[in-house]
Amino acid sequence: NRDHVDVVSMKTKRGQDIVGIYVHHSAARLTLLYSHGNAADLGQMYELLVELSVHLRVNVM
After folding, report:
1. Sequence ranges of the domains in the chain
2. How far apart are alpha carbons 25 and 22 in whole angstroms?
3. Dist. CA 38–CA 41, nearest whole Å
4. I need a labelling partner for 3 at 20 to 30 A (CA). Which of 18, 21, 25, 59 fits?
5. Global pTM?
6. Which PANTHER family does the UniProt entry name for this protein (predicted)?
7. Long-range contacts at 1-10 (CB < 8 A, ≥ 24 apart)
8. Which residues are registered as beta bridge partners of 21?
9. Predicted pLDDT of residue 38
10. Which of the residues in the chain have pLDDT under 50?
């Protein structure tokens, strides 16, 4: 559900931007930090991250 997905941007101490996707699950008690391989396309990973959230009942970052 797109209502529960946010694009987030964080800045490192060195000034680098890190962009991620946060998938919120209303019944979640935990948040899974998903680390992908180098040069991964977050747009292509969108469905996987949502499915992980739904099936595991967790937030995914």
Report:
1. 2-60
2. 10
3. 9
4. 18
5. 0.82
6. ALPHA/BETA HYDROLASE DOMAIN-CONTAINING PROTEIN (PTHR12277), PROTEIN ABHD13 (PTHR12277:SF81)
7. 1/50, 4/53, 5/46, 5/50, 8/61
8. 7
9. 82
10. none
